[in-house]
Amino acid sequence: MNSLGLKRAIVNTIKETLEDETVMHPRVICLGEILFDRISNQPGLPLEAVSSWTSYPGGAPANVACALTKLGTPSAFIGCVGEDDLGRSLIDLLKTIQVDTSGVQTYPAPTRTVLVLRSETGDRSFVAFGDKRDTTEFADTHLKSDRIPVKLFQHADYLVIGTLLLAYPESRAAIGRALELCEQFFVKVVLDVNWRPVFWNDQSIAPRMIHNLIKRADYLKLAEEEAEWLFDTTDPGVIAHRLESLEGVLVTAGEKGCAYCLSQKEGKVPAFSIEVEDTTGAGDSFLAGFVHQLCQHQLSEVKQDADRIVRYASAAGALTTMRAGAIDAQPTGAEVDAFLFLQDQEG
Q: Concatenated DSSP letters for 241-270?
């Protein structure tokens, strides 16, 4: 056994020793933003013409944490909310869903709200922030690295992160600290690019930061347009070949389905034919479905079950589009299993 393998074995032994059989430790940590999406009630209208909005709890990493727990994989959320009613309500929601909140911080700034326009076909665009505030004026930008609980990483198998909090110095340092803990405790990193230009005051610095973050990831999920933007290709095999550190690349394309390269196996999974009400949070449920499946498989099994793993993720995402909101619309594991069973019967 080489020195790296020996160190990994020692860390795994420590993790097992620390396990308390009476406690269900989170297997997945999700780090990033939690917020309220204020979604337009008038699909197809521009910002200035919208007369009313409906607020839904969201934020991609928080969505993933909630979706994982509903699917049956214990999760934890690390992020920062304001010391206000909105922040308290988000913490209460996480606790109700049974997401571990030991990594949630508070800060005396507003909890973020995002204005979301919808097209007549249900597609979304993130256009502004509540009360016309600058993007830097919200609590989530103040996530502090020295308050991240080390204990969560001692027990976890995966860290799920996005790129939005790279835009702010304090939260960027917190991401760096989390990645250090992942290296220390051999926690695999799942990165969702989740590009939202409205979060960045200086968009020109984003590509370099995102590429540096990708180099430290084990799995990469990105939308087709994000793949084209960052790699000039939408081929997950090409992307995986360029970045040999990646164990998996997922490129999603909405109604066109998902292309993947997992453990050097490439394939495509078509989208399910369903009636879409709202696409908010669908990509996050997809990612949760994928990570949930990773937790159900040994790494040696991922290659042979790759198509089934991605199909499960696609089902989780599809079911989320059939109801409004992100977290409220997420399916349970039983619902995903039933949906896939019906699809197999009809096919």
A: HH-TT-SEEEEE-GGG-EEEEETTEEEEEP
**Cβ–Cβ < 8 Å for 73, 27:** yes
Work out whether the CA dihedral 130, 134, 135, 136 comes out positive or negative.
negative
Lowest mean pLDDT among 26-30, 134-138, 320-324, 341-345: 320-324
CATH number of 26-346: 3.40.1190.20
Q: How confident is the model at residue 131 (pLDDT cuts 50, 70, 90)?
A: confident
Estimate to the nearest angstrom the gap between the alpha carbon of 277 and the chain centroid.
21
Token pair in block for residue 227: 């793949």
Distance CA 129, CA 36 (A): 10
Q: Model's pTM, two decimal places?
A: 0.91
DSSP H helices, the chain, are: 3-18, 60-71, 85-97, 150-155, 169-185, 206-214, 224-231, 236-242, 282-296, 299-302, 306-320, 333-346
Residue 140 and residue 119: Cα distance in Å, rounded? 28
pLDDT-derived band at 210, boundaries 50, 70, 90: very high
Percent of the chain clearing pLDDT 90 (strictly above): 77
Q: Where are the domains of the chain?
A: 26-346
Burial class of residue 100 (count of CB atoms within 10 Å of its CB; 0-12, 13-18, 19+): buried
Q: Which two tokens stand for residue 99?
A: 């997401």
pLDDT of residue 19: 46
